[in-house]
Structure formats: C-alpha cells, structure tokens
Design goal:
Blueprint (H helix, E strand, L loop, with lengths): L5 E2 L8 E8 L2 H6 L10 E8 L17 E8 L8 H16 L8 E3 L3 E4 L2 E12 L5 E10 L4 H6 L8 H5 L5 H22 L2 H11 L5 E6 L4 E9 L4 E5 L2 E5 L4 E6 L2
Parallel strand pairs: 2-3
Antiparallel strand pairs: 1-2, 3-4, 4-8, 5-6, 6-7, 7-8, 9-10, 9-13, 10-11, 11-12
C-alpha cells in the first residue's frame, strides 16, 4: 500500500516524496525510478521495511513507525558523484538533523554510521550505477532510529544500538524527524551544487573527529595502517605512520578506528 506522491516547495531533494506503509527496501523502490530523467531528488520513505539493508550485507532493524526509513535518488554532476562525497553528504545531513533534537554532538563513524553518545542511531547505504540513458545515479538509503526503546535493542542483541528516544528520553514523532532530515538534505545539496565538495569537508572533519589523532586505517585491499590521520579531504587522505606517509583516496579505505 502506498500514498500518492507528495509535492513540496523544496528545490533539490524531496520535491517529490512517495511515502509507503510497507516495503522490502526503500532503496529497491528508488532503483525502480532510475529510467525516469525527472526523478532527480525523489524521496521514497516507508513506515517499515521487511528487508532493510545495511553496509556489507548487514540488515537494518526497525519496527513500524519507529524509524525514519528513506532513500533519495540523485543524478549528481561529475564533480560530486564520487561515493565518498555522496556518503559524507548523507551522513552530514543526518548529523545536522540530529542537532535539532539532541544536546550531544553527533559523531560520524567512518564511513557511514552516525552515533550519539556512543550509540549507533543511523546507518547509510549507498548504491549507484548508470541509468538506461547513460546518466550516473546514486541512491542514498538512510535508516534513522527514532522511537525504539532500550528493551528493543537488548532483545535484538544490539548493545551498541540506540535511538533518539534512548539518548534523549523523549518520545518524538518520526514524521517530524523525517521532515527535518529531508529539509537538511535539500538545503545541503543546494550548497553542494553551488560550491562543490569543499562545502562538506569542514563538516566532515568536524563530525568524524579523526583528523590529527592516532587511528587504525583498514584498506579494502586488506592492509592495516596505524598512525596519525594527517589530512582528511575528498581529494586525498594522508596517514603519517612509523615508516612514512600513506596517501590515498577515501574510497580505498574500508574503515578508520580511533585508537584511544
């Protein structure tokens, strides 16, 4: 069952918004629209997902009406279509949304989780490719926990899981959080279009809290580096380690862990 598409005054993201009662995955539904050139910025959200996906094949836990579950379909320009930029864009929009509802500073845990007070409240899944019209597309799937209780996470065996309710003690309306998130996605995408990736870098450094600190860097090819994160930009990540300097792109990195 679905509701009719809603239209708003937003400029980039959410001008078209389709809300579903239930679906297997909002990313799956968004991918069905990649043949439509005018679907740029389409948001598909759902009250619940039966097969929500996370990074590296993980599943996303939710209950009906308890989480913001949405996907955004974008046809980004060449300068901003890289996976690292689009992932950071989604994570920063979530972090900025959270600052409207919580007192603690949100933390982006590399590359695509958002934490509050040490608890994972949001995960992001990026999928991309080329449309039938040979236009690059990106689907950004976001699962943001809002109303789940601590008992819910305990029963699910997720001790590091959290929601806005568990970290604030307040019962918030999921729809209010969803609307705020779409507004942030729309505003930030406009800035990204106007100014390019540099508009994200300062916030990316601020929310990840890794620059200048001792870290363990896990590369996709399997190598592990331990050193100081010397530079964190979309153009280049630089790690100073005991035998020299490692230079690489963010897309080469599977994970970065802070060494306390």
């Amino acid at each position: 069952m679905e509701q009719a598409a809603q239209y708003s005054s937003r400029t980039w993201v959410g001008k078209q918004h389709l809300h579903l009662v239930e679906t297997d995955s909002t990313n799956n539904r968004a991918l069905e629209y990649i043949h439509q050139p005018d679907a740029h910025g389409l948001v598909i959200s759902a009250e619940t997902q039966t097969s929500g996906r996370g990074q590296y094949g993980r599943t996303w836990q939710d209950g009906t009406g308890q989480a913001v579950l949405l996907s955004v379909l974008l046809y980004p320009s060449q300068i901003i279509q890289r996976a690292s930029i689009m992932t950071a864009y989604g994570a920063i929009a979530v972090a900025q949304t959270l600052e409207h509802f919580v007192n603690e500073k949100p933390l982006i845990k590399w590359p695509n989780d958002v934490l509050v007070n040490g608890k994972k409240v949001c995960g992001i899944l990026l999928e991309g490719g080329t449309t039938p019209h040979q236009v690059p597309y990106v689907v950004i799937g976001i699962g943001l926990n809002v109303r789940q209780t601590q008992a819910y996470f305990d029963a699910a065996g997720l001790p590091q899981g959290g929601s806005l309710q568990t970290v604030t003690g307040k019962e918030l309306k999921t729809s209010d959080v969803r609307d705020c998130l779409i507004d942030q996605l729309d505003r930030l995408y406009g800035e990204l279009q106007a100014r390019g990736p540099c508009v994200l870098e300062e916030k990316w450094v601020e929310y990840t809290q890794l620059s200048g600190r001792q870290v363990q860097v896990v590369l996709h090819r399997g190598d592990i580096l331990v050193g100081i994160l010397h530079q964190q930009q979309f153009g280049q990540i630089v790690v100073r380690h005991p035998t020299g300097m490692w230079h690489g792109a963010p897309e080469e990195i599977r994970n970065i862990f802070l060494i306390r």
